[in-house]
Design goal:
145 residues, mainly alpha
Amino acid sequence: MASFYVHVCSLLIFIAFILVSPFIGLSFARSSIIETLCTNATDPSFCINALKSDPRSDDPTITAIFEQIAIDLAMANVTDTLQFLNEQRNRSKDTRLKAFYGYCIADYQDILIDTDDAKEALLAQDYFTVGTRGQSIMESADGCD
């Protein structure tokens, strides 16, 4: 589950940095944009499927739609991951494993805050902050893989 989240986070960071690219200002078919955006992602197939799975990706009138989708996916996944980690910690009898889950829970609580900050920064068109929060998310998620 954590590795899924890392893929979502890498997608978020990649898309955040793509915003400064002159490519975004050009007019292409949505599927072409998605494929181009995902070319350098950690897992291009995952990136393409994730973006295309959201019906909003077909609406050309929504500003920064791919970034919104990536952040929404990240937010949903971090919430599910936190629930999973809490359940595993509560079930575990191993004190070392409980401590590890506790460490990961703290990391994912930070990720939740960073994801919320990234969403607010996106709404404010503060793409630098979106990128730095995305980097922080990836670093935090890597510790629990």
